[in-house]
Design a protein that fits this description.
- This protein is an alpha/beta fold.
- It has 2 domains: about 1-35; about 35-205, Protocatechuate 3,4-Dioxygenase, subunit A (Sandwich).
- The protein has 2 helices and 13 strands.
- It has helices at about 5-30, 170-175, and strands spanning about 50, 65-75, 80-85, 90, 105, 120-125, 130-135, 145-150, 160-165, 190, 190-195, 200, 205.
- The strands form 3 sheets. Strands 2, 3, 7, 11, 12 and 13 form a 6-stranded mixed sheet that branches. Strands 6-4-8-9-10 form a 5-stranded mixed sheet, with no helix packed on it. A two-stranded parallel ribbon has the order 1-5.
- A hairpin with a 6-residue loop joins strand 8 and strand 9.
- It is globular.
- The model is unreliable at about 1-5 and about 10-30 (pLDDT under 50).
- The structure holds fe (ii) ion.
- Fe (ii) ion (FE2) binds near residues 47 and 148.
Length: about 210
């Protein structure tokens, strides 16, 4: 047997190393959310409506805009690394013209069904995963582009927060927005446009377990 590996042997080894590196990269990407610390909180703002529709397809009346899909995993437990099944996740955001539907607050029952849009409530699945489909919100006022969130899970501190678009981090727009300062990295969500033109983002959320 030769003391030197044959070229084909080297190719096989290098090939498997490359595949191993690739798999490790995928594993890291999937674990990224679990590496976030507790998700920071932010204000609910003036446009929160209680008892929003129980749907994750929240552009219910076909408002115009760029399709958007945001998904992720809800984590918790004492180490913040356990996927939480059955967490209640609520989101709301403005439309492509910067208007909320309704552009107010209160109770769902205060409004006509046709006035309610871009708000909804879903549950995390057995692996802690959730997903919402909507349209990309616009900017309004001095705000960064954002989505509002409220998450409730048994045994954990309820969380109200906002997520942002990574592309706006460090921009003049970010600096003009004083609603939410010192936002941790995990709340700056990267949205990529897929082949179907959908803006796809992943937002993993870490809840704090109650003592
Ligand atoms: Fe808002």
């Amino acid at each position: 047997m030769s003391a030197h590996p044959t070229p084909s042997y080297r190719r096989r080894v290098l090939g498997s190393l490359a595949a191993g590196t690739l798999l490790a990269g995928v594993a890291r990407a999937h674990a990224a959310g679990a590496l976030c610390g507790p998700t920071g909180s932010s204000t609910a703002g003036p446009f929160y409506v209680r008892n929003a529709p129980q749907t994750t397809q929240i552009n219910r009346h076909g408002l115009p805009g760029t399709p958007m899909q945001v998904s992720g995993t809800i984590y918790g437990g004492t180490d913040g690394r356990q996927p939480l099944a059955g967490a209640v996740i609520e989101i709301w955001h403005c439309d492509a013209a910067g208007q909320y539907h309704p552009n107010g607050s209160g109770e769902l029952a205060d409004y006509l069904a046709t006035d309610v849009d871009l708000r909804g409530i879903g549950l995390s699945d057995a692996e802690g995963r959730y997903r919402f489909d909507s349209i990309v919100p616009a900017h309004y006022g001095n705000r960064r582009r954002h989505i509002h969130w409220r998450i409730v899970a048994p045994g954990h501190r309820p969380l109200v927060t906002q997520s942002y678009w990574l592309e706006e981090k460090g921009t003049a727009r970010e600096r003009r927005d004083f609603v939410d300062r010192n936002v941790e990295d995990c709340r700056w969500v990267r949205f990529d446009t897929d082949a179907a033109g959908v803006a796809v983002g992943r937002f993993d959320i870490v809840l704090v377990a109650l003592a």
